Amino acid sequence: MRAALLVLMAGLMLALSGLAALADPSPAIDTSRELVVATKVAPPFAMKGPDGTWTGISIDLWQRVAETLHLRYRLVEEPTVDALIDGTAAGKYDAAVAALTITGPRAEIIDFSQPFYHTGLGIAVSLTGGARWMVILNTILSFGFLQAVGALVGLALLVGILIWLFERRRNEHFGGARGIGTSIWWSAEAMTQASTGVRAPITLAGRTLAILWMAVSIIAIAVFTAGVTSALTTRTLQGLVNNASDLASVRVGAISDSSSVDYLTGQRIKFRGYPSAEAGLKALKDGQIDAFVYDKPLLAWHVLQEYSSTMDVLDIVFDPQNYGIALPLGSPLRKDIDVAVLDSTRSDWWKQTLFRYLGER
């Protein structure tokens, strides 16, 4: 009887331990091991000082997470985002922190923590007048401008043909083989209020049409001139690029290994690839491109630090993105890091951190 009771108690203990394992299936974090955490320079999310000390939004967040979870770690620098992703996917790194955008292709080979920053792509444009002639040329060659010119020319041709039909038998100046050319020339002359000596119509129908055409042409030319002037003034003041849709008609630059390339490729927008934001912004300054596309907070940081008087970041955000901490697939750190990230980003400490680096409240 006693032996049976002991067997029953042992079975009960095994069952309870099994239930506990089901309730918390994630393996425990080994806090004794030093983690290898990769990063890359991506101001203001990851910045390396002259003494080798790392700071920035992502770095500060990781330090807070590590302190919360009592993790030991060392930072390793990589030159590109692809190196961060590939190294984490291969298990070379226990985590990667920088300005890593959470995307579908990346989520297939690595895990991401909860998003800690919501952003999107931005556009930097030049404030100098180097592209002013390009603005004027683009406006003149635009479909709307050509359509307006075509309408005026079409009206002049129509009026010229009607004048020829009315005058060809009674007005020697509009008759004969050359009469239709003279009629069209008179129509253009009347439209532009010029005077080249071409005789006027003499028939009642011709003169009636001439009076109507003169009145209509004055209005048409005035509207056309006002529209062109307004378009040129507006585009010259605003520049070539005012929103994402304008990128299709200008020279665009982007960082070769960034998520900006995915967006531009998906929208079939031609672009020039650059190895870094510094290289792309220098090309923009030198007039080699008309717009540079990159993650907006990183773009704003670079422009503010180096090009505040010559460039501007448009007040638009497109292609929404989220930043997260990259982890190997199935990492035992993920659950605890998720909780620590959520707690940190909902605290006053996070608000102060964003304000310190970005001025965001």
Automatic annotation (TrEMBL):
Keywords: Glycoprotein, Ion channel, Ion transport, Membrane, Receptor, Signal, Transmembrane, Transmembrane helix, Transport. It comes from the Bacteria. SMART domains: PBPb, PBPe. The keyword Signal applies. GO terms for molecular function: ligand-gated monoatomic ion channel activity. The chain crosses the membrane at residues 144-166, 209-232. The keyword Membrane applies. SUPFAM superfamilies: Periplasmic binding protein-like II, Voltage-gated potassium channels. It is found in: Membrane. This is Transporter substrate-binding domain-containing protein.
